[in-house]
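C-alpha cells in:
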C-alpha cells in the first residue's frame, strides 16, 4: 500500500501543478491584485518635483483623483502622457508620483511634454512606490475624496483603458454625494 502511494505521488504533484498552470492561462496579465484596494492611500511626506515643498497624503484628499506613477526612464510613460494631458484639460484631477528618477530629468520632461499633474510627488528612493506595491511604471491608482484606493491599473493608460476602466469609475466617484 505504501509503495502504491509513493508511485502515485509524482502523478498527484503533476496534476496539482497542471491545475495551477491551467488557471494561469485564463488570467489577464494586466490585472494584478492589490492589497490597497479599499484601503487608505499610504501616508507619506515627500518633496514636490518642481519645488521642495513637502507633499503628504493629506494634500490628496478632497476630490477623487488618479495617482499616476511615472518616470522619465519609462518608455511606456511617454506613450500615455498625451492622454494624461488631455484628461487634465477635461478637468480630471491627476497627481503624479515620479518614481526612482533624477529630479532634473523629471523637471525637463514636464517642461517639454507639459505637466498633467495637480501635485508632482518626488519619490527618489521609491519608498512610496514600495508602500503602494508598485512593480514599475506606469501604474495608476484611483482614489476617492477620502483618499481610499478604489482601483489600480498596471500599464499604460490609453483611450481604451480610460473609456472602459478608469473613466467610468472616476466619473462615478465624482458624481457620488
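Residues out:
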Amino acid at each position: 500500500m505504501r509503495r502504491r502511494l509513493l508511485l502515485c505521488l509524482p502523478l498527484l504533484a503533476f496534476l496539482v501543478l497542471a491545475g495551477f498552470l491551467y488557471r494561469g492561462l485564463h488570467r489577464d496579465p494586466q490585472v494584478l491584485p492589490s492589497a490597497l484596494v479599499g484601503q487608505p492611500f499610504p501616508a507619506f511626506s515627500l518633496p514636490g518635483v518642481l519645488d521642495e515643498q513637502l507633499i503628504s497624503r493629506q494634500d490628496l484628499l478632497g476630490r477623487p483623483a488618479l495617482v499616476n506613477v511615472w518616470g522619465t526612464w519609462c518608455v511606456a510613460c511617454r506613450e500615455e502622457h498625451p492622454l494624461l494631458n488631455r484628461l487634465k484639460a477635461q478637468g480630471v484631477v491627476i497627481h503624479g508620483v515620479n518614481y526612482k528618477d533624477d529630479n532634473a530629468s523629471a523637471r525637463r520632461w514636464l517642461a517639454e511634454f507639459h505637466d498633467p499633474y495637480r501635485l508632482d510627488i518626488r519619490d527618489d528612493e521609491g519608498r512610496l512606490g514600495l508602500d503602494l506595491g508598485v512593480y514599475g511604471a506606469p501604474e495608476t491608482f484611483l482614489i476617492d475624496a477620502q483618499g481610499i484606493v478604489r482601483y489600480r491599473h498596471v500599464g499604460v493608460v490609453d483611450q481604451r483603458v480610460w473609456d472602459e476602466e478608469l473613466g467610468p469609475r472616476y466619473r462615478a466617484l465624482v458624481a457620488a454625494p
